[in-house]
């Protein structure tokens, strides 16, 4: 570990903290502004002149191995983003050892010194915003606004968790007084946290989990998603530049089933912060619980998939219906439906069904499909495996339901994984496409006649992540608030686009351990409360 980094930290000034009370969520960039367009074009030039480089593993120093992970642009698979190491078990062991050593120092660091590092990281990220957007557009196929929102979310996590950490530190919980004793209640970090993110929010999600772990005094092994190692490398680089010492954060790209699995079972790991699919989340939950040779129970945060529904009530106001249609469109097809919060089941009241569907299909037929770098609304899905899985669900839909639009590969000038926006109707509650997470641009539409039935349909899946209701009926809105069982319910707005500190995010049922990222309780998952009692009258 580089001790000089700790010395550098200790010379930082404290007064930066007063900025916290001006905390605001990061505004999104306006890409109608020619100035922003030019800056992004310059960033693309810079990024494209730096493609296809090789990056090491970072633990106490740099390591290279024989096996590689190659990250490619899903919208133009001829373009290689970068070459990364596929870590070995030996290096995973090394990372655990180094992270455990580093914990002894980092966990003792003054809270303000730790927080300063992340506030500094927020400011560095603001300055590099266009470069990070350009890398993300190329590595995972987000359009400009989606990539910008991801970067803005990352900045928000840095500042929101900084504010929260100070608040936890400065506002100890009150205990009941007890005669003859002084009693304290405070929080300790846990140890080494393994961060296992998905690829779909390739900056915001790994950053949110990593920063929460570090700011509370834990050390981190970051195992990036195989499809987005570049964005995790950029996250590592950002935090190192901001002042997180090497070894406190460790960058360990590798295969989930091998190196991820090994770390989850490792006896010297204290916590796993995971976001990804239900299948992998459940496996991690089980593996973390059942492994011998350790001295503690491992804590697991597992934020998983969704099968999210929007209910549109019997509405007669034309402009409100248009608003609902556009909200449905972005919820279902924003980032090709590859958000855990994405809409995949549309539940429409029978009285508005025909009119709503006419409007929706007309809007879908106008969606522009193509290269995210050219800022088309709908880009590629992430990789061949995802493409095949989505097409498999589309084939099932074609067999059992009625295809209204889309349903095939979109032929395009570049080699990539493009799928047309797809809609099925005549879908029954228990049909496969109404039950399983497809994670692509596929929407299943159902009809209802009374609101109780709509809620029943909405709740009839094993997931419970997001949901939305468009209604002008106060009674139905209240019913949804009470009975629509999901972690994030939105009334009269889209079901995607949660904002840090505004819409704490996390699901019920098999959508997660409900740790609510970007919420007031989140950091407590990374801490152990300790109770100390001193007798003063004896
Ligand atoms: P995934 O589950 O395939 O992979 C997630 C991570 O787990 C990757 O880093 C992978 O390498 C690792 N992994 C795979 N097998 C492992 C194992 N056996 N042990 C340890 N680690 C292992 O998910 P994905 O395809 O990257 O992401 C898409 C999924 O994530 C979707 O289901 C989506 O709904 C979900 N998601 C959920 C949220 C949320 O907040 N609830 C947010 C984003 C994405």
- What is the typical, i.e. mean, pLDDT? 95
Given the helix and strand composition, which structural class is it? alpha/beta
Strand count, sense and barrel status of the largest sheet are: 7 strands, mixed
| Strand segment count | 21
Q: Spans of 5+ residues with little confidence (pLDDT < 50)?
A: 1-16
* Biggest sheet, spatial arrangement of strands: 14-15-16-13-12-18-19
Please, what is the CATH homologous superfamily of the largest domain? Aldehyde Dehydrogenase, Chain A, domain 1
How large is the share of residues in beta strands? 15-25%
Ligands bound, unique: nicotinamide-adenine-dinucleotide
The number of helices is: 16
Percent helix, as a range, is 25-40%
Note the quaternary state here: single chain
Kindly report how far apart the N and C termini lie.
46 Å
Any idea of the CATH class of the largest domain?
Alpha Beta
CATH topology of the largest domain: Aldehyde Dehydrogenase, Chain A, domain 1
What Rg is obtained from the alpha carbons, in whole angstroms? 24 Å
Provide the number of structural domains: 2
């Amino acid at each position: 570990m580089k001790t000089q980094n700790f010395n550098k930290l200790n010379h930082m000034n404290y007064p930066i903290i007063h900025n916290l009370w001006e905390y605001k969520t990061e505004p999104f960039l306006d890409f109608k502004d020619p100035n922003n367009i030019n800056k992004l074009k310059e960033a693309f030039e810079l990024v494209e002149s730096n493609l296809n480089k090789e990056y090491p593993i970072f633990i106490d120093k740099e390591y290279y191995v024989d096996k590689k992970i190659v990250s490619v642009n899903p919208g133009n698979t001829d373009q290689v983003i970068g070459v990364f190491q596929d870590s070995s078990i030996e290096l995973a062991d090394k990372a655990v050892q180094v992270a455990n050593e580093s914990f002894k120092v980092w966990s003792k660091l003054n809270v303000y010194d730790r927080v300063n590092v992340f506030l500094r990281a927020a400011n560095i990220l603001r300055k590099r915003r266009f470069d990070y957007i350009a890398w993300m557009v190329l590595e995972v196929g987000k359009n400009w606004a989606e990539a910008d929102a991801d970067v803005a979310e990352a900045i928000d996590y840095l500042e929101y968790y900084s504010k929260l950490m100070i608040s936890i530190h400065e506002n100890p919980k009150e205990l009941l007084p007890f005669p003859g004793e002084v009693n304290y209640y405070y929080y300790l970090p846990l140890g080494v946290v393994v961060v296992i993110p998905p690829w779909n929010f390739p900056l915001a999600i790994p950053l949110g989990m990593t920063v929460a772990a570090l700011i509370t005094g834990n050390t981190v092994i970051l195992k990036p998603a195989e499809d987005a190692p570049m964005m995790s490398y950029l996250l590592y680089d950002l935090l190192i530049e901001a002042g997180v010492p090497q070894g406190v954060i460790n960058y360990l790209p590798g295969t989930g089933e091998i190196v991820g699995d090994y770390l989850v079972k490792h006896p010297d790991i204290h916590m796993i912060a995971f976001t990804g699919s239900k299948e992998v989340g459940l496996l991690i939950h089980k593996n973390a619980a059942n492994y011998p040779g350790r001295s503690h129970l491992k804590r697991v945060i597992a934020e998983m998939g969704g099968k999210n529904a929007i209910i549109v009530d019997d509405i007669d106001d034309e402009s409100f219906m248009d608003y609902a249609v556009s909200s449905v469109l972005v919820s279902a097809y924003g980032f090709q439906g590859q958000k855990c919060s994405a809409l995949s089941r549309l539940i429409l009241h029978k009285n508005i069904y025909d009119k709503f569907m006419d409007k929706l299909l007309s809007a879908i037929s106008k969606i522009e499909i193509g290269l995210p770098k050219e800022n088309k609304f709908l880009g590629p899905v992430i990789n061949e495996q995802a493409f095949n899985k989505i097409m498999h669900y589309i084939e099932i839909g074609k067999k059992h339901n009625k295809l209204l639009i889309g349903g095939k590969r979109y032929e395009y000038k570049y080699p990539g994984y493009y799928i047309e926006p797809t809609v099925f109707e005549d879908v029954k509650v228990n049909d496969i496409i109404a039950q399983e997470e497809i994670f692509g641009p596929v929407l299943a539409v159902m009809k209802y006649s009374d609101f109780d039935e709509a809620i029943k349909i909405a709740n009839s899946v094993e997931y419970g992540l997001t949901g939305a209701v468009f209604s002008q009926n106060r009674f139905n809105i209240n019913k949804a608030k009470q009975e629509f069982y999901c972690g994030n319910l939105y009334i009269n707005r889209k079901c995607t686009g949660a904002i840090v500190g505004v819409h704490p995010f996390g699901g019920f049922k098999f959508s997660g351990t409900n740790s609510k990222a970007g919420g007031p309780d989140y950091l407590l998952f990374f801490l152990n409360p300790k109770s100390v009692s001193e007798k003063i009258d004896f």
